[in-house]
Amino acid sequence: MKYNWNWGIFGQTASDGSGTWLYYLISGLGWTLATALAAWVIALVIGAVVGTLRTTPIKWLVRLGNLYVEIFRNIPLIVQMFLWFFVVPELLPKALGDWIKQMPPPWGSYVPAVLCLAIFTSVRVAEQVRAGINSLPRGQRMAGTAMGLTEAQTYRYVILPQCFRIILPPLTSEFMNIIKNSSVALTIGLLELTGRARAMQEFSFRVFEAFSAATVIYLLTNLVVVLMDGTTPGQNLPTKPQGMPEEGWRASGTADFDLDGFEHDAIYDAEQARIEMRLVSRRPQLVTVAGVPVRFRAGEHIAGFARRGEI
Which pLDDT band holds residue 30 (cuts at 50, 70, 90)? Predict the structure, then answer.
């Protein structure tokens, strides 16, 4: 195929007069990242809540979470994008719907795009959170119970910190996906990177140059995300505590978490059906233990064992 490449097009003035075509594409990257980051924050929060609820013993919460996941996971992204842009404003109260439809560009397209990407990605995050929690040994919950933590405290201080360490690599992949999925927003008028590449080829008739540049920008952006993550699968899994025999570690699980003033470490020994607990003071302090005031120096710790039924 004979094609006269013209890379000098990127130094020429863009059709809107805002700068060169290269600057025009870089501005599109800014909207891509703004859309992806806003959607990712929402998706991470909703996904973490839904994924956690799906592992609780409350049946109706599990069913509600499953329903949420199945609905939004089985509808194509572009269909959801059209629903958020065209249908949802009509279902809202008239005043709110009119306000959304009258939002000036690009916000009229930006808000529906963020909400759509956030909900679509949240169900994938929820699945990963659920899988991460279920991958932990049962002893983690038992350790939290033995230390007197409530169900909510066990999730907050024991289960979820370990879960997110395990699922960090797939969460990074999801963030990369949300950056790429933001290109669907061009269908509702948001001029992000892909939308601006398309506009460039329509005005300059340089199709290959425009989309080649967009491809390189997407590739470099996601490579930066991978380098910022800096993890490999399995890197965040718990490691054997120093001095603990290998055979004991294979039958045990660990839970490391922080509370005010103390670092707590609980090791559940499945073979002996007991929990070893250690509390390390993070600063000099006076606390009450079993009704007796005890003064701790920074770094000083207490340890003990507990069996099921002794707490």
Answer: very high
Strand ranges in 168-309 using DSSP code E only, listed in sequence order: 252-259, 262-269, 274-281, 285-289, 292-296, 301-307
Give me the amino acid identity at 304: G
* pLDDT score recorded for residue 241: 44
| DSSP string for 203-215 | HH--HHHHHHHHH
Alpha helices in 54-167 (DSSP H): 59-73, 77-82, 88-91, 94-101, 107-134, 139-146, 151-154, 160-166
Helix 21-53 with 193-204: angle, nearest 10 deg:
150
Q: Which residues pair with 277 in a beta bridge?
A: 266, 304
How do the residues of the chain divide into helix, strand and coil, expressed in percent and rounded to 5? 60, 15, 25
pLDDT digits (tens, 9 = 90+) for 242-269: 444 444 333 333 333 344 555 555 554 4
Average pLDDT rounded to a whole number, residues 179-194: 94
Mean pLDDT on 184-195: 94
Cβ–Cβ under 8 Å, residues 296 and 280: no
- The secondary structure of 160-177, three-state, reads HHHHHHHCHHHHHHHHHH
Angle, CA 138 vertex, CA 137 and CA 143 arms, to 5°? 105
The ranges assigned to domains in the chain are: 10-229, 246-307
- In sign, the C-alpha dihedral spanning 225, 228, 229, 235 is positive
Cα 62 to the center of its chain, rounded Å: 20
Per-residue CA distances from 257 to 13, 135, 160, 265, 266 (Å): 55, 18, 10, 7, 9
4-8, 23-27, 78-82: lowest mean pLDDT where? 4-8
The residue with greater pLDDT, 232 or 252, is: 232
Query: Tell me, which fold does domain 10-229 have in CATH?
Result: MetI-like fold (1.10.3720)
pLDDT band at 141 (very low <50, low <70, confident <90, very high): confident
Q: Is pLDDT of 128 > 70?
A: yes
